[in-house]
Amino acid sequence: MAVEGSKMCFVSAFMFVATAATLLTPDKGFEVTMGTVTKTHIKLAVAACAVIVSYRLLKSTNKQVEPAILFSDTKKMKAILVKSYGTHPMEIGTIARPRVTKATDVLIRVKAASLNPIDYRVKEGYGRNMLEHIRTKLGFSNEFPFVIGRDCSGVVEEVGELVMNFKPGDEVWTSVMLFHPAGTLAQYFLTSERDVSLKPKNMTHTQSASLPYVINTSYPALQKAGVNPSSAKGKRVLVLAGTGGIGSFVIQLLKAWECHVTTTCSADGFEMVRSLGADDVIDYKKESLVSAMEGKERFDYVFCTRGGNDTYRSCLAVCRSGGAVVTIVTPVMRNLDRFGFIIGSVVNLVDKIKIKIPQKLFYGKLFVHSFHEQSGARLGEIAELVQEGKIRACIDTTYDMLDANDALNRVKQGHARGKMVVTIPDYDH
After folding, report:
1. Helical ranges in 62-124 per DSSP H
2. What is the mean pLDDT of residues 175-180?
3. Residue 344 domain-assigned (yes or no)
4. 253 and 230 fall within a common domain
5. Do the domain assignments include residue 373?
6. Model-level pTM greater than 0.70?
């Protein structure tokens, strides 16, 4: 009864604070991604959020969150540590290794890890409000230090007693969710069996490390837009930023699914994207999407790797009626950082409704936000395509662990041709 009472108190508190948010909203509203959020928008979203939060809390179970066990072994390892938010350099340090405690745990000795744009943003504090909230809920008590890196390739060191598909010595790859403070830029990484797959046999660890995060970010995004192996054949798809880590993979995956692919990049990237299979290329420095597609057939699907109001509108403009635009760059964490968790959640809901509903009702176009979703099975499916020669790794530069800061700076500069990969040596302690 005490637990249920605390839930009711939380629901009441949420509704009180959310209602107060409507009173604090300026008459002129907030300027957000797709325009202005007015006081009326806030009121409607608050009502929806209150119902959703109330329902989920009252239907949730009473089980306690099991504290996460990270960096807790008596054995040590080297890792690249973020000790505070900002632009200052990361530090290489010696910390406790993670250890196998659950029956489904897989401990991986990391051979290589890749870096993504989200890594430098999180290091500098992007998404702090949401990430801290989720980490607390999952039992991660310490904010610092944390380790960046969203994917890796390595060798299984140890497994839990119920792990059936992997054994010590297996070469594997995996990715990790953004909120997890134990990233892959370390000698060892602990994860669950369900998130692991045997890496492609015809790739090195350095090559394999460049792909898991982009696979588990882009594949589910395509599925949400309605693109999959059975529906893709012959479809016209636009992929923004084809020379980047995400874009270079998506081009290859869509060609493996027999799509017609158009991509954007600058002139010096034309050769690269055509080698990946792109049928048409738009030089974004010379012409806009809308002007480039004037008088031409619109796309069935648009895969957006850039954020912002203008980008979304351009993508929707070149998408046909009945088609879909999916973006992996959303304003969700930015709004939570700017407005706080409660008001930010309301603004996110309004932001989404203002573009999604009108596009669907009046133009017949689906607009979808998508996020990274871990899946070992998905990695296994792509590993088969890699081994068939249909997908290859695209690596801009490879760095040693000691040069991890240089690697992150290179990512931050943008305009990379593929991924940045950091190799992890076997240090002695």
Report:
1. 117-123
2. 86
3. no
4. yes
5. no
6. yes
Q: Which domain holds residue 414?
A: 76-210+394-423
The string of DSSP letters for 251-309 reads HHHHHHTT-EEEEEE-GGGHHHHHHTT-SEEEETTT--HHHHTTTSPPEEEEEE---SH
> What pLDDT sits at residue 6?
46
Same domain for 225 and 174, yes or no, is no
Classify residue 68 by its DSSP letter: P
pLDDT at 361: 73
Would you say 322 and 119 are in contact if contact means Cβ atoms under 8 Å apart?
A: no
Q: Dig out the tokens for 226 from the structure.
A: 């309605």
Whether the Cβ atoms of residue 321 and residue 364 lie closer than 8 Å to each other: yes
- Judge whether 323 and 301 are in contact, CB under 8 Å: yes
CATH number for 317: 3.40.50.720
DSSP-derived letter for residue 152 is E
Do residues 45 and 23 both lie within one domain?
A: yes
The answer to whether residues 319 and 243 belong to one domain is: yes
Band (44; pLDDT cuts 50, 70, 90): low
Q: Among 312, 328, 344, where does a domain finish?
A: 328
- The H-or-E segment that residue 421 falls in is strand 419-423
- What contacts 54, CB < 8 A, 6 or more positions away? 11, 14, 15
3-state helix, strand, coil in the chain (%, to 5): 40, 25, 35
Choice among 60-64, 137-141, 374-378 with the minimum mean pLDDT: 60-64
In a domain, 350, yes or no: no
Residue 218 and residue 184 in one domain: no
Position 46 confidence tier, pLDDT thresholds 50, 70, 90: low
| Residue 378 covered by a domain | no
Beta carbons of 183 and 404 less than 8 angstroms apart: no
